[in-house]
Amino acid sequence: MIASTVPSSSKSSINLPTYATPFKSSFLPSSFSIPPRFSPSTPRFQYLTITNVLKTADSPNLSSTASNLDSIFSNSKPTILVSEKLGDAGLDLLKSFANVDCSYNLSPDDLCSKISMCDALIVRSGTKVNRQVFEAAKGRLKVVGRAGVGIDNVDLQAATEFGCLVVNAPTANTIAAAEHAIALLSSMARNVAQADASMKAGKWQRNKYVGVSMVGKTLAIMGFGKVGSEVARRAKGLGMHVVAHDPYAPADRARAIGVELISFDHAISTADFISLHMPLTPTTSKVFNDETFSKMKKGVRIINVARGGVIDEDALLKALDSGVVAQAALDVFTEEPPKDSKLVHHENVTATPHLGASTKEAQEGVAVEIAEAVVGALQGELSATAVNAPMVAPEVLSELAPYVALAEKLGRLAVQLVAGGSGIKSVKVVYRSARDPDDLDTRLVRAMIVKGIIEPISDSIINLVNADFIAKQKGLRISEERVFANSSPGCPFDSIQVQISNVKSKFASALSDNDEISVEGGVKYGKPHLTRVGSFDVDVSLEGNLILCRQVDQPGMIGMVGGILGMNNVNVSFMSVGRTFRGKKAIMAIGVDEEPDKSTLKKIGDVPAVEEFVFLGL
C-alpha cells in the first residue's frame, strides 16, 4: 500500500451552495468543449471525447466529455494568432486546421487586445507572453507555442494558473544550433571575422591574426542536452577533448559519446574553450559572473548560442579587458537587439544576431514541429514537448481513456452527494491495481477527479495543466493510496474509489463505515461503471443521469419505481439493486435518459418503502 498527497494551501475549503433539493443537471456546466482533430485529407473536423484533458470554457456546445469515444463533426474552427514570422510549411498546416491570424510586431497592448479572440498563440523569442496576456485572454487561450527551444519569454506560472498549455519545438533546430556553435568556435579560434573585416578595410595583417589550434584542447560544454550533445560529437571529430557539466544529464549517454561529466567548477577551471548550452532560469541567470570568471584558466575562450542572460555582460567585458577571457563568440544577448553594446564592438568578440536556428532547413522544421504541437494540443493530445504539463505517452493515454472518463464521473457523483453548505477540504483517491505501484501513472486520472469535483460547484475550468494548482488554491487536499488487487495486470486499475471526508451527505447511504462519502467504480467493456456506493454494491453504467434510492428490500419495488418513471415519460436505460442482507436495506440505482421533473421525483419519494433518494446529473 502506497500513499501520496497533493498538499493543500492555507486557504479555506471549497464551499458548496445550499440547495433545498438535490443537485439537478442545470447546476452543472452546460457542456465540455472537444477541440477538433486535424485531418489533412478532409476539410471536416472530427471531435474526440478524450480531449477533455485540455478542456476550456468557450468552445462549441457538445455533450459531456469522455462519455464515449464516438466521433462527431463540426465546421467550427479555432483561431490561432501567429505573432512572429513562421515558415510556410508550418503556416500551411495551421491554415488547414484553423483560422490563422498572422500579425507581426504587435505592441504589448495590441497583443492583449487580440488575444481574447484566440485559442492559440505562436511566438518566437521576441514576443513576451506575460501574466497580462493570460488575463486578457479571459480563459479562451488554450495553447501557447514557442517556435524554438527557450521559453523564458513565457510566464509559465501564469500559463499554468490559467490552464494554458505551453509547448515548444526543441528538436528541429538542434543541428542548426550545434553547427552554429562549431562555426563560432572555429571562426573565433582562427580570427576569421576580424581578418575578414581587416581585408575589407584594405589591410593585410597576417601577423596580427594568428589563431590557436583546437586539436587536443579541452572543450567544456555547459548544458548537455540535445544541442550540447551534438556540439560534443562535432568537437570530438575536430580532435578536442570534451567534458561537460549538466546536473540532469545521464552519465551513460555522455559516456556513449565519449564525454566525461564533471562538476561546474572543475569544468570552467580546466577548459580552454567553454560552450554554453543551458536554459535561462532563475538558477542560471548571470551564472557566468565576476566570481565565475575568476576561476577560469587565463586565456579561455567562450561561445554562447544559448541565452544571453546566463552571462553577466559587464563581468564578461571586464574579463575580456583583463585577458582572463581571450575571446568570446556570442550569438545571444541579454537585450536583443543589443543597444550601444561595448561587447559587440570589442575587438576580441565575434558577434552574430541570434542566428543559431537560422538555416532554411531548421526554420521549416521548427515551423512544422510547433504547428504539429499546437494542433495536437488543440485536439487535446498531450504533446511530448509540453513544458508545463506532465508527459503522458500516447499508448498510456489510449489505455487510460476509459479510466479518465470514470475518474471525472466519480468526482461529479461524489460532489453532488455532498449536502449544500458543507465545505470540502479533503479528498482521498484509492486505486486498486495488480500492477507495480511504480508503473501506475495516476496524474491524469487525479486531474480528472479534481475536474469532476470542482467544476460543477465553481467557475474554475480544470484540465491536466492546472488541476493540482487549482486544488491547492481552493484549499483542497488530495491524497492518493495504491492498493494491490489480485486481478489481471492487463488493466491499469481494477477500481478507483473517491472518498470525501468531514462533510454531510444528502444521501446518507453514500456514507462509508468511516462516515465518508464514498463512491467506487471500474471499467467494463470499455465503459465506466459505478460498482459501489457507501457500503452497497451496485453495477451501473455511468451514462446519462442517475437516481439512487434507499429502500426496504421487498418485492415489487423495481416495478413500482419504474412504473412511476414510465408514466411520466422518463426512459429507464438500466437498473441495478444492491443490498446488505435479504429483507433489510437495499439501494436501487436507476439510469434515466431524461431529467425527471419535481412532481415525478416527489412520487418516487412518496413510495412508503423508499427511505431516501437523490437525483444525480452526469
UniProtKB/TrEMBL annotation:
Cited InterPro entries: ACT-like_dom_sf, ACT_dom, ASB_dom_sf, D-isomer_2_OHA_DH_cat_dom, D-isomer_DH_CS, D-isomer_DH_CS1, D-isomer_DH_NAD-bd, NAD(P)-bd_dom_sf
Primary location recorded for the protein, binned into one broad class: plastid
Recorded metabolic or biological pathway in which this protein acts: Amino-acid biosynthesis; L-serine biosynthesis; L-serine from 3-phospho-D-glycerate: step 1/3
CC terms in the record's Gene Ontology section: chloroplast stroma
Protein known as: D-3-phosphoglycerate dehydrogenase
Keywords assigned: Amino-acid biosynthesis, Chloroplast, NAD, Oxidoreductase, Plastid, Serine biosynthesis, Transit peptide
PANTHER family with a match to the protein in the record: D-3-PHOSPHOGLYCERATE DEHYDROGENASE 2, CHLOROPLASTIC, FORMATE DEHYDROGENASE 1
Residue span(s) of domain ACT: 546-618
One BP term from GO: L-serine biosynthetic process
Catalytic activity: (2R)-3-phosphoglycerate + NAD(+) = 3-phosphooxypyruvate + NADH + H(+)
EC numbers, comma separated: 1.1.1.95
